[in-house]
Amino acid sequence: MESDESEVRERHNRMPETGESDPLIGGVGQDETEADELKGCGASLACDPRRPLHKYLVLIIMCFLSFGSYFCYDNPAALEVQMERDLEITTGSFMSLYAWYSWPNVVLCWCGGILIDRVLGLRLGAIVFAGFVTGGQVVFALGAYLNKFWLMEVGRFIFGIGGESLCVAQNTYAVGWFKDSTLNTVFGLQLSFSRVGSTVNMNVMQPLYVYMERYSTGYKCLGLTLFVGAAFCVMSLLCTFAVAYFDKRSERILRKKEVIAAAEPMRLKDMIDFQLGVWLLCIICVAYYVTVFPFIGLGQVYFQSKFGSSPADASGADSLVYIISAVASPVFGFCIDRTGRNIVWMSVGVLVTLGCHATLCFTFINPYIPMGVMGLAYSVVASALWPMVAFIVPNKQTGTAYGIMQAVQNLGLAVISLVSGKIVDAHGYFILEIFFMIWLCCKYHSSLPRETFCSLSQALKGM
């Protein structure tokens, strides 16, 4: 198994270089001819797009592309009690807000990847998708302010059109700027900043709601609180313009050209042509994420009902996965870069997550402990899983591959979000935890290192 994994790493490292050996901690590594071609601002130490200092700046802005999206995605989870009370809805209806976010991405993530690779290009595509995120959050907040639940569902649908496709654009940017031995670290950093957005949401929205009660009550107070989320979406939209500027500038200075393939009708063959490894990663991705995000969406009420937690403690425990992953993701990404054991790391993370759900289900241990450990496990799985797509597909198909992977993920999240709400309404949280553990058992079986890695190796040999 180790020799097969070394072969994958070797193959990945033989991909075309961008002109440097290590963009985060190493030197530039450019030859004299390239150096002579750089003129003006591009020739200086800080402004050369291949210099580590310049890449640090771009990476920081890049990390904030999805900050607003992640902040607003879990607005419902942070305000579950308030939403169900002010809007007079059931848990099943509440969870439909997550389903409405996911449904458009069953198709649009793939379409978003196609649009990035073939039609709009990466820079314009990211701006368009960030615009959908901002507009969707505004409509969502307006629906709450007017007590129109159907309008809130429309807002989540619009928000979903841009949310996952913006992540596709962010991943494609990362691969384009850092496709080398530091890719796991870069993905870990992006995940970290995104989870900071989720963490801020979980810890800010309830106090903000209490503050807004000075000026309004009921669903109007809820609407005003949700409008604050739109400000974070605007910030992310501005970041897409900034990254587009730096990417365009790099293209001009290095005399490259953004490659946009000729637009073609989407065909089933486009999906079949992907290697088996991509589809295996899609299955692993959906089987894991459906045990994390829907659970966090319902976690606050669960902790209050089973463990007797106060609303503040329940919110803190529910957000702990995001807090831990915000710190741990880049650390684990760096470790995975150094060891090269993506599949092994991922399998361990799945097994630990299974243990966390079992602890929450069968014991009364303080929920902060299993949720903190789950945050570590989630960081490991996410940091190891997503960069593997770049190991398998060529550059020109990266956006499409990430789009398909997130489309499959959102199909699972949409279905499981609805099922989770129904399970809670009909049978309670104990059965819900059993349901999640069954998914993790399936996921762990599908991600056993030897079988999965052999399949990935066979797929790579067919490239």
SSE sequence, one letter per element: HHHHHHHHHHHHHHHHHHHHHHH
Kindly report the name of the CATH homologous superfamily.
Answer: MFS general substrate transporter like domains
Which class best fits the helix and strand makeup? Answer: mainly alpha
- CATH class membership: Mainly Alpha
Radius of gyration: 22 Å
Query: Strand content of the residues, in percent?
Result: under 5%
- Based on the structure given, which CATH architecture is correct? Up-down Bundle
Number of separate strands: 0
Helix content: over 70%
Mean pLDDT, to the nearest integer, reads 77
Biased composition (Basic and acidic residues): 1-17
Protein name: Lysosomal dipeptide transporter MFSD1
Region (Disordered): 1-26
Organism: Ridgeia piscesae
Description:
The chain is mainly alpha-helical. It has a single domain (43-262, 269-461), classed as Growth Hormone, Chain: A (Up-down Bundle). The protein is built from 23 helices and no strands. Helix 17 crosses helix 19. The protein is globular and about 60 Å long.
